[in-house]
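Supplementary notes (optional reading)

For those who missed the lab, this is the record we used. Protein: Cys-tRNA(Pro)/Cys-tRNA(Cys) deacylase. Length: 163 residues.
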Amino acid sequence: MGRIREPVTPAVRALRAAGVHFEGYSYRYIDGGGTGQVARELGIDEHLVIKTLIMEDDRAHPMVVLMHGDQQVSTQRLARGIDARWVTLCTPEVAQRHSGYQVGGTSPFGLRRTMPVYAQRSIAALERFYINGGKRGFILCLPTAEALAVLAATPLEMAQPSR
């Protein structure tokens, strides 16, 4: 769609407070459309659209996981990387309780509770990326290095190997 005046979400407030410059874009949210929908509507490579996943480890500790839109998380690699027996995606209800965001609109910024953030290592190589702004149909574009620094993200190699 196009650049818009940003809705005031917790993510927008957190980024403004941190002094991070970003641009907000609207897109037509479609249930199940995911990062592919964002990429098609904005005319960008899906690899630049970063998913925000809320996951839990075997001790029920929640975490935020950032992954390229065109890749999948290997929960085995993630679990090994954080010294857990296993990691699983939270149900939508549990994810909302941890993050404060509705699934499909989850942002890693302005979360309801503090959680560790793990980012696929290759995300750091991007100059800028697109990530949810805290509301369905609202995406942010921001400098990668600043975003990862604000999130205190731990880089991990956790992409699902290609077959």
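If you only remember one thing from this example: The chain is about 25% helix and 30% strand.
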